[in-house]
Design a protein that fits this description.
Layout (H helix, E strand, L loop, with lengths): L1 E2 L9 H7 L11 H4 L4 H12 L4 E9 L5 E12 L5 E10 L1 H23 L3 E5 L5 E4 L1 H7 L3 H4 L13 H14 L3 E8 L5 E12 L5 E10 L1 H28 L1 H27 L5 H29 L7 E3 L1 H11 L1 H6 L3 E6 L6 E3 L1 H18 L9 E7 L5 E7 L28 H11 L4 E5 L5 E8 L14
Parallel strand pairs: 11-13
Antiparallel strand pairs: 1-4, 2-3, 3-4, 5-6, 5-9, 7-8, 8-9, 10-12, 13-14, 14-16, 15-16
């Protein structure tokens, strides 16, 4: 507390202890004498306060008795005598050195983070507790070619491809609300206007005490990887198509027999109808029955041709919701004549009420055809009464269906259990060695896995899993049980 001449009237004990020699050397002395280094500045503050003003400062250096410097927050205001006149000024101080140091440390930390972030070979972003983005590093801004002000908040979303934005925001919002890590892929517009695929990974960030602060994440350009994946998928589809055509060649004899039956029946019925019509006493009811038989046999032939055409046709991968029971039935019908020719019994052991799966119908049929034809070949030297194949579908896991194709053939020797899935490895004299390799890649593309085990008695069982239609196959690991 000072009088109008800025002489000390009253001081706190801490002020005397920490900032000057002692109370007997302070009271009555001028503030300008005690702190000569701040005289000019305080004369102006003194003048304004004596005129009735209130002065404040959030951070101001003050010398201590030991020569060090404290940072203080102060407020100076006039005090009034009983006469109502301003008797002098009074100053309240609060030491904020620790806060000042913490702020400086934070600024230094933020400066180091910005240097690190701006030199990192990835695109870095941060968001606050309101889900809005508060920071993007130089890598992000260089990639998008936009200013920081344009990207902040939700501005970054303007660069996301319109086909990806809804899914992108859904993943981000759900993870944010659950305080969980997330990873997503989406197309982001580059500085040249071209959309490129990026892989974005975000994690929650928090104070040392656990208080949630928002998210930090990084994104990397995966355009090259995506191109490689698309090329690999295209090559896989090409090989799968070649393998299907090859299988149709293997089935040529049985398919010809399958077609000859309805075609022969159609010819016989048509000739019978001609004879009836040529006679003078044609029975129209008999002719109608003959025509009905012709229509039914024609439908049978059309179904065989349609199934063949679907398998041989070259199309892109199309994921749809499928009834596995119906699909297995179609494959069994396609192989019916071949099974009869080889004296093989195919048993479908399928539990009713199975949930649907999601996949490409033609490629999944190709897998089943390949496994069944392999089973046919494995039993060619077996006794006629032992040639039986069982196809079982189980729903043990809430997320997966397991299909098992069990034969009673020679089995698979231990050192070949994995080799048979390698490209160009074959145990058949005239085999290409691609069927099982392609089949495994198809199942893995559907989020499942294909493997083999020898049976306890004889033969082998090939298993593969498929996610149900309620489960995204990208969320399941492709790993053998």
């Amino acid at each position: 507390m000072f009088d109008r001449e800025m002489r000390y009237i009253l001081t706190s004990r801490r002020w005397v202890k920490d900032y000057k020699l002692g109370e007997q050397n302070i009271i009555g002395r001028s503030h300008y004498e005690v702190f000569p280094e701040i005289t000019e500045r305080w004369k102006e503050i003194h003048r304004r306060c004596l005129a009735g003003a209130v002065e404040t400062c959030e951070q101001d250096p003050f010398p201590r008795l030991d020569g060090s410097v404290d940072w203080v927050r102060w407020e100076v205001r006039p005090w009034y005598a009983t006469s109502g006149e301003i008797g002098g000024i009074i100053m309240f101080t609060e030491v904020v050195t620790d806060r000042k140091r913490a702020e400086e440390s934070l600024r230094e930390s933020e400066a180091r983070f910005r240097i690190m972030a701006d030199t990192a070979p990835v695109m870095i972003w941060m968001s606050g507790t309101d889900k809005l983005c508060t920071f993007f590093n130089k890598g992000w801004l260089d990639f998008t070619g936009r200013a920081l002000e344009q990207e902040l908040g939700n501005g970054w979303a303007e660069g996301v491809h319109r086909e990806d934005i809804d899914r992108c925001l859904e993943i981000y919002t759900n993870a944010f609300n659950a305080r969980q890590e997330f990873t997503m892929e989406y197309r982001l517009r580059r500085f040249d206007g071209k959309y490129c695929w990026v892989l974005d990974h975000g994690v929650p960030r928090a104070e040392a005490n656990g208080e949630f602060l928002g998210y930090i994440g990084c994104a990397v350009d995966i355009a090259e990887r995506k191109r490689g994946e698309l090329e690999a998928a295209q090559q896989r589809n090409e090989l799968a198509h070649i393998a299907r055509v090859s299988m149709m060649g293997e089935l040529a004899a049985s398919l010809a027999h399958e077609l000859n039956q309805p075609l022969t029946a159609i010819l016989s019925n048509a000739q019978a109808a001609q004879r009836f019509l040529a006679s003078n006493t044609a029975d129209l009811d008999e002719v109608r029955e003959i025509l009905d038989d012709i229509v039914q046999d024609d439908c049978r032939a059309s179904e065989v041709i349609d199934r063949m055409r679907a398998l041989v046709k070259k199309e892109n991968l199309q994921f749809t919701t499928l009834d596995l029971t119906n699909m297995l039935g179609d494959v069994a019908l396609l192989l019916r004549s071949d099974a009869i020719l080889h004296n093989i019994r195919v048993v479908l052991d399928i539990n009713p009420g199975l949930p649907p799966v999601r996949g490409d119908r033609v490629q999944l049929q190709q897998v089943l055809l390949n496994l069944l034809l392999n089973a046919f070949d494995a039993m060619k030297d077996c006794a006629a009464d032992a040639r039986e194949i069982t196809v079982r579908v189980e729903h043990d896991d809430a997320r997966l269906l397991t299909v098992a194709v069990r034969d009673r053939g020679v089995g698979v020797s231990g050192d070949k259990a994995e080799k048979i899935f390698q490209p160009f490895y074959t145990t058949k004299r005239d085999g290409l060695g691609m069927g099982l390799a392609i089949s495994r890649s198809i199942i893995e593309a559907h989020g499942g896995y294909l493997w083999v085990r020898n049976n306890a008695d004889r033969g082998a069982t090939f298993y593969f899993t498929l996610p149900t239609a309620l489960v995204s196959h990208s969320s399941l690991p492709a790993a053998a049980p």
